[in-house]
Specification:
Blueprint: H1 5-12, H2 29-38, H3 44-62, E1 75-76, E2 88-96, E3 102-111, E4 121-126, H4 129-132, H5 136-153, E5 161-167, E6 171-175, E7 178-181, H6 198-209, E8 214-220, H7 222-228, E9 237-243, E10 247-254, E11 267-271, H8 280-283, H9 289-297, H10 312-328, H11 339-342, H12 349-356, H13 361-371, H14 378-413, E12 419-426, H15 428-432, H16 436-447, E13 451-457, H17 463-487, H18 494-512, E14 522-523, E15 536-543, E16 548-556, E17 559-567, H19 571-574, H20 578-596, E18 604-609, E19 613-617, E20 620-623, H21 640-651, E21 657-662, H22 664-673, E22 679-685, E23 689-696, E24 709-713, H23 731-738, H24 754-770, H25 791-797, H26 803-813, H27 820-855, E25 861-868, H28 870-874, H29 878-889, E26 893-899, H30 903-923
Parallel strand pairs: 2-5, 5-8, 9-12, 12-13, 15-18, 18-21, 22-25, 25-26
Antiparallel strand pairs: 1-11, 2-3, 3-4, 6-7, 9-10, 10-11, 14-24, 15-16, 16-17, 19-20, 22-23, 23-24
Helix pairs in contact: 1-10, 3-14, 5-6, 7-17, 9-10, 10-12, 10-14, 12-13, 12-14, 14-16, 17-27, 18-27, 20-21, 22-30, 23-24, 24-25, 24-27, 26-27, 27-29
Bound molecules: 1,5-anhydro-6-O-phosphono-D-glucitol and beta-D-glucopyranose (BGC) (2 copies).
1,5-anhydro-6-O-phosphono-D-glucitol (0WK) binds near residues 754 and 870.
């Protein structure tokens, strides 16, 4: 019978004592009392066991190991730093769940001055039982009404109010204002809320009421509010501990240890949710029959077993069950049990705290028991106090063991030998129970001697802390809004892209007709792509991209073999005299020939010259203007083949036959066309950007013949130089253009290509810093430096696998002080800039393929595009975004993008080979 203990008896014979039931009153009452109280004794070894097992569960949950299901949840709260003390403003705080059946609304003013606190105005509302157990909508409507009632009685000035929602239940958070309830605890069991976003439920309720314009900007667990409410003192408060109706703790974990956060860095406050700790191995031995009885009768049997041994909602009930047990065994109240004593929940935390408090005195205990319909003897009172003491001491010890586990975890995550930390404590059990805190502290000292801990009682139950988090959330939300406003012009929609496509098609037609157009549509005198019969050894030069290359290209039956060497073009040469530049080029050729044992051989040479040239023939190209950071004098308006030949002549030693000059787009098309005959378009997205394609000869003004095709170098980098892109150009594009060596020129290129994207990002970061959105508004010297933010950073930063860590590493190398939020914002800036670039490039390609389709009067066009360029090749998303934009804007064209492996040097050699083959044919 005893095993069933009080529970069994409870139901049938509620009010009869052993004497009344004719049961023999136990002679060994003290033994029975000892046996009963002994159950609440927890040994040092058991406490260590609990500490170790809780620590193991915490670490398992951090690693997101699914099996076995961790006993604790370790929920990220998206609070990444403890208060700076700079937060300021007026905030509303709505507290639900921290204090059982009560809801509190506070008006908190943060002064932003350390140590200067304004006492919050607050109002408490009792939540009716039926609301705590009813439909969720009813609970949130109740909360909205309380808010309105509070605001009605506390007139507030500002129209839009920012609210922090302190919601003290286990939630999966995905942001400061996005939180899904996992399960109710502590006497709450509203339907239709578990699995829902509680912020949205509150927003909907406030909306339904429509009384006030309140913006719910953050949801915060009460432990976090407690921690954040702690005045920044000598030691940062990095742990928040609540023992109120329920119990829980949070602490600042290293974000990289929280698996769900994808390798983030910095810190993240984690809510342990230790209430659900239920490792039978560790807890089994300390769970008493009374704990099982209490759990069995509770709203959530089997859940929150640890909380039910510590939380204020349960301590009174535990005491009651023990008193009933002892009374039934005739060792208390003469075996008499009153209806009040037999009714669940009749002994509250404050009763236990008072009855145990030696200063309360016997009279007070007597009064409390009398209120329960009992008439205690002095011995009863003493025994009742022992029972209260046993129950609360155990609660404090268990809580101490749990806190010791958290401190050990904190010490491990900081890799510190010793740990100095402050723990903010809050909750009625701390406030009401005389000895709880000291027992807890002794237990911590016993179990975590290497941790030097100070305890900071929370002054207002975390209201200030919740307001702090709300202030941070409000700041982040405001920043996010400013970021969105700043990036909005970079988010191009289908209509805008279709307009760019249409404008480009018109500009192409005008350029081909020789009318005014920002697209020069330059004939290249390449009329055919290779047919595979080309043969021979050719030299090729590749100038205009990131690297200057000299190549030996052997075109044989078995395919094309390439030997090449990269040479640098120093800025002083690229921006020096033309003679110096071409002499440097010839020096490289000679060096290459020496190294390849080609000295003295006169091989035909193809010259990839990636700048706008008006070609008069295959081997004559007048440079129209430099681009991409080149600015050598005395070249513009000159035939660059002539300039090269002059340099060769000056060098005397070498014999070179310059046969063809091609643009890198043409070289790329030819190189890919050698493998795929459908390749009729060449695209470069590298330092600069441009495209060429096979146009109908009949459409090319100024070139004789109207059958067949001619490859046209569009020089689309200059698209929009006539202002036609004005509607898309942003203030950042204007800054980049003004600071370039060719302002007003190459506007399309300056929105797309590698030479400029990093600069656009840098200007946006400067702007966001000036708005206080980034780097706490501190103007950062290094960000003032041109080209310090390389375009290759975008490719690295946007790589899916290592996003945030990469951002930090790159920006920390640049010497930028970075918070996680800053890192996220820099990533979003890079994404917006590169996405626009890829979409604009896609709109350009769509214009070209549609033109070819229309030229040929085809319903459907199948065509390939040969592509080269560092940005296109290295950026993780650029190529797929280009292809997606083309599919959307030119659905009747099946477009394949072929990444050129050997660069346009091979293409230049093939053009040379075709020219030599055609020249050969004429000669024979
Ligand atoms: C490699 C080609 C070269 C072209 C370059 C463009 O061989 O002709 O100019 O790509 O890409 P960038 O090097 O500017 O990134
Ligand atoms: C909840 C926690 C809360 C604790 C203290 C527990 O029941 O699950 O989220 O922090 O009570 O209020
Ligand atoms: C040049 C083009 C070249 C492109 C890609 C532009 O700046 O004007 O001729 O094709 O860069 O390298």
């Amino acid at each position: 019978m005893d095993f069933l203990g009080p529970v069994g008896l409870l139901h049938e014979e509620k009010t009869l004592g052993c004497s009344q039931k004719g049961l023999p009153c136990p002679s060994n009452s003290s033994e029975l009392v000892q046996k009963c109280l002994q159950q609440f004794k927890v040994t040092g070894a058991q406490l260590q066991q609990i500490q170790a097992s809780l620590l193991a569960s915490m670490e398992q949950a951090l690693k997101e190991r699914a099996s076995p299901v961790p006993a604790v949840q370790m929920l990220p709260t998206y609070v990444r730093s403890t208060p700076h003390g700079t937060e300021q403003g007026d905030f509303i705080v709505l507290e639900l769940g921290a204090k059982g059946a009560s809801l509190r609304v506070l008006w908190v003013t943060l002064t932003g001055t350390e140590g200067h606190r304004v006492v919050p105005r607050s109002q408490e509302f009792v939540i009716p039982q039926e609301v705590m157990l009813g439909p969720g909508q009813q609970l949130f409507d109740f909360a909205a009404h309380c808010l309105a009632e509070f605001l009605d009685t506390h007139p507030v000035s500002s129209q839009s109010l920012q609210l922090g929602f302190s919601f003290s239940f286990p939630c999966h958070q995905t942001g400061l204002d996005r939180s899904t309830l996992i399960s109710w605890t502590k006497g709450f069991r509203c339907s239709g809320v578990e699995g829902q976003d509680v912020v949205q439920l509150l927003r909907d309720a406030i909306q339904r009421l429509g009384a006030y314009n309140i913006d719910v900007v953050a949801v915060v667990n009460d432990t976090v509010g407690t921690m954040m409410g702690c005045e920044p003192g000598v030691r940062p408060c990095e742990v928040g501990l609540v023992v109120d109706t329920g119990t829980n703790a949070c602490y600042m974990e290293e974000a990289q240890h929280v698996a769900v956060l994808d390798n983030d860095r910095g810190r993240m406050c984690v809510s342990v949710e230790w209430g659900s700790f239920s490792d039978n191995g560790a807890l089994g031995p300390v769970l008493t029959t009374f704990d099982h009885a209490l759990d069995h009768e509770s709203l959530n049997p089997g859940d929150q077993r640890f909380e039910k041994m510590i939380g204020g909602l349960y301590l009174g009930e535990l005491v009651r069950l023990v008193l009933v047990h002892l009374a039934h065994h005739g060792v208390l109240f003469g075996g008499y049990t009153s209806p009040a004593l037999l009714s669940q929940g009749s002994i509250l935390l404050e009763h236990v705290a008072e009855m145990e408090d030696p200063s309360a005195g016997v009279a007070r205990v007597h009064a409390i028991l009398q209120d329960l319909g009992l008439s205690p003897e002095a011995s009863d009172i003493e025994l009742v106090q022992h029972v209260c003491e046993a129950v609360c001491t155990r609660a404090a010890q268990l809580c101490g063991a749990a806190l010791a586990a958290v401190l050990s975890r904190l010490q491990r995550s900081r890799e510190h030998q010793t740990l100095q930390v402050a723990v903010a404590t809050g909750g009625q059990v701390f406030e009401q129970h005389p000895r709880f805190s000291s027992i807890l502290q002794d237990t911590v000292m016993l179990l975590a001697p290497q941790c030097d801990v100070s305890f900071v009682p929370s002054v207002d139950g975390g209201g200030q802390g919740v307001a702090m988090v709300t202030a941070v959330a409000a700041r982040l939300a405001a920043h996010q809004l400013l970021l969105e406003e700043t990036l909005a012009p970079f988010r191009l929609n289908r209509k805008q892209l279709a307009a760019v496509q249409a404008q480009m098609q018109e500009a192409m037609a005008r350029g081909l007709r020789g009318e005014a157009s920002s697209l020069r549509m330059l004939p290249t005198y390449v009329r055919a792509t290779p047919n595979g019969s080309e043969r021979g050894d050719f030299l090729a030069l590749d100038l205009g991209g990131t690297n200057f290359r000299v190549l030996l290209v052997r075109v044989a039956t078995g395919g094309v073999q390439i030997t090449s060497q990269v040479y640098s073009i120093p800025e002083c040469v690229a921006q020096g005299s033309g003679q110096q530049l071409f002499d440097h080029i010839v020096d490289c050729i000679v060096d290459f020939q020496d190294k390849q044992g080609l000295s003295g051989q006169s091989l035909p040479l193809g010259f990839t010259f990636s700048f706008p040239c008006r070609q008069i023939g295959l081997d004559q190209g007048i440079l129209l203007n430099w681009t991409k950071g080149f600015n050598a004098s005395d070249c513009e308006g000159q035939d660059v083949v002539y300039l090269l030949r002059e340099a060769i002549r000056r060098r005397q030693a070498v014999e070179l036959k310059v046969v063809a000059i091609v643009n890198d787009t043409v070289g790329t098309m030819m190189s890919c066309g050698y493998e795929d005959p459908h390749c009729e378009i060449g695209l470069i997205v590298g330092t600069g950007t441009n495209a060429c394609y096979m146009e109908e000869l009949r459409n090319v003004a100024g070139v004789a013949g109207d059958s067949g095709h001619m490859c046209i170098n569009m020089e689309w980098g200059a698209f929009g130089d006539d202002g036609s892109l004005g509607m898309l150009s942003t203030r950042f594009d204007a800054s980049v253009d003004q600071m370039s060596i060719n302002p007003g020129k190459q506007r399309f290129e300056k929105m797309i290509s590698g030479m400029y994207l990093g600069e656009i990002v840098r200007h946006i970061l400067l702007h966001l810093t000036s708005l206080g959105v980034l780097f706490r508004g501190q103007q950062i010297q290094c960000l003032q430096t041109r080209d310090i933010f390389k375009t290759k950073f975008l490719s690295e930063i946007e790589s899916d696998s290592l996003a945030l860590r990469q951002v930090r590493a790159i920006l920390e190398d640049l010497g930028l002080p970075l918070t996680s939020d800053d890192a996220q914002m820099v990533l979003e800036v890079c994404q917006a800039v590169s996405q626009r670039a890829a979409q604009l490039c896609g709109a350009g390609v769509a214009a070209v393929v549609e033109r070819i389709r229309e030229n040929r009067g085809l319903e459907e066009l199948t065509v390939s595009v040969g592509v080269d360029g560092t940005l296109y090749k290295l950026h993780p998303h650029f190529s797929s975004l280009v292809a997606a934009t083309v599919r959307e804007l030119a659905p009747r064209c099946a477009v394949t993008f072929l990444q050129s492996e050997d660069g346009s040097g091979k293409g230049a050699a093939l053009v040379t080979a075709v020219a030599c083959r055609l020249a050969q044919k004429i000669r024979v």
